[in-house]
Amino acid sequence: MSLVSGPFDGPCIAVIFTSVRTRTDAEGYGETADHMVRLARRQPGFLGVDSARGPDGLGITVAYWRDEESIAAWREHAQHAAARQAGRDRWYEEFAVHVTRVDRSYAFHRPSQAP
Amino acid sequence: MSLVSGPFDGPCIAVIFTSVRTRTDAEGYGETADHMVRLARRQPGFLGVDSARGPDGLGITVAYWRDEESIAAWREHAQHAAARQAGRDRWYEEFAVHVTRVDRSYAFHRPSQAP
What pLDDT score was predicted for residue A2? Predict the structure, then answer.
């Protein structure tokens, strides 16, 4: 069982979301972030998501999608649009979004050690 | 002063490195990781880097480069090659690398509040 997303077969778009949180509303933010991941997993064209936030407050989430159509549909999802608005209203000091086409991928898994 | 990388003018390649650490050699890993960031910043074609690792051990680093030539040169840098080998030997349980072309980017900065 892999803990990191990919590599994926076929075309893939990676959306990189890099953010710095405000100190506001940790509980509401956490609940919504978890809900958005659960919701995204059910959207057509969703391939995977990885997320990390360090002790300095900088967070990176990368979501992988099949194509532009699946990204556009997720973007128009009403609950996702409301969450984005709350992010601008109170959760983020700043963020950057990079929409990218995955050109190539590779992965490493440590071999199991003999018992 | 922005804490997150981008948007960048002109072509941009984002290299997404997602990893899970072993529990081995935290000090050596940290020193090398910091050194690699300092070294990368001096390479031709380097545009920026963001990095986060959460309490669950999952980390994401995204490095932004001008073109494939700058990525190839960094890949061949002897100290970087040695660090990658140490990563496979002892630092990572698993990782995935996605090399991507940035198609579009946007950013948000919270307006300064009136005093």
Answer: 81
Q: Which of B7, B14, B92 sits opposite A100 (nearest CB)?
A: B14
Q: Are B12 and B64 in contact (CB under 8 A)?
A: yes
DSSP state of A89: I
Identify the contact set of chain B against chain A, taking CB-CB distances under 8 A: 2-7, 12-14, 16, 18-20, 22, 50-54, 58-60, 62, 64, 88, 92-110
Residue A79, SS3?
helix
Contact B94, A93 (CB under 8 A): no
Residue segments in chain A with a per-residue pLDDT below the cut of 70: 1, 114-115
**Nearest by Cα to A55 from B33, B17, B52, B2:** B52
> How distant is the Cα of A73 from the closest Cα of chain B, in angstroms?
17
Give the CA count within 13 Å in the CB-facing half-sphere of A42: 6
Computed over every residue of chain B, the mean pLDDT equals 95
